[in-house]
Amino acid sequence: MELHNLGFDHWFERQLPTSLQKGCGVARVCAVDRGIYRVRNGSGEIPAELAGRLAYTLKSPDELPCAGDWVIVSYYNDDAAALIQQVLPRKSFLRRRSPGDSRAIQMIAANIDTAFLVQSCHFDFNPNRLDRYLAMAADGGVTPVVVLTKTDLIDREDLEQKIALVAAMTTAEVIALSTVTGTGWEALGPHLVAGQTACLLGSSGVGKTTLINRLVGRKAFETRAVSGTGEGTHTTTRRQLVVCSQGALVIDTPGMRELGLADAGEGIEAGFEDIAALAARCRYADCSHGGEPGCAVAAALQNGELAAQRYANYCKLKKESAYYALSSLDKRKKDKAFGRLVKAVKKRKDR
After folding, report:
1. pLDDT tens digits, residue range 338-347?
2. Can you say which residues are annotated as belonging to the binding site?
3. Are 24 and 131 part of one and the same domain?
4. What are the φ/ψ torsions at residue 245 (nearest 5 degrees)?
């Protein structure tokens, strides 16, 4: 398989150094699992590990190779294994704050053309989480497509209501499909172009594994039943890139319920297109939507054009992103100040 079939285009060619050292080549990271890598080149897929020099010079975890990255590797063991020497710049990416650590960034995938934001119409339909996925895609310059699965488990009226709700949140295309009836699958075709890369994002149990098995044209991954409470089971434990039957590339990801946003200010604005459009009509360019005269956002909230819950989600994500953007020193100062406030309140209560 040629590199261009794996997504290597002129943009990436321009990121290469003037010349490569003897024994080195370009490959794409196709699997990451707890620090263990697999890369794919024109000859096939081989195991890889970080070169010591690269591991020593990395400044933060988000600089580590992730699924979809293009890397320069040096081969050994008769080209049966490789050392990752350099990670090429990323054209686009999907990232989140590392679970349990508000200061670290976790890369989900890189060099993605389309993000399929998968939500089940049964238990897992969650507009609040979808807001975060949309902001995440906008933050990394990835085109989102909302995919509603398991449409056979609800009636037509309920499905139309869910589609209308999503359409009110975003201008992204909405695809409703069912693996049981086969409806909706043809709508995925235009987004699965040979040499382009898509990524599946969604919680466990929404049908990502079933979806990717059908796209690949074989049972590449095991599926498991969803519990009676709607909780999914993690069937995908690593991020990996696979080639579909029509030549498109798809990165599958483990189910994610914790989606802390990194510094995604512009991504949030793009993810909340309706609120951004309203804000553009405010009397003052620096309107905080907190009571200023001529505020279009406040007017939309009052007349019902903008749902209060959606605006609350917007404010929450803006605040979360702004906090993450603070320097580590400012964060420590803010945390200490909050700690002093809590202690002061407790002292007053004890008197």
Report:
1. 566 556 555 6
2. 149-152, 202-210, 282, 287, 289, 295
3. no
4. -60, -30
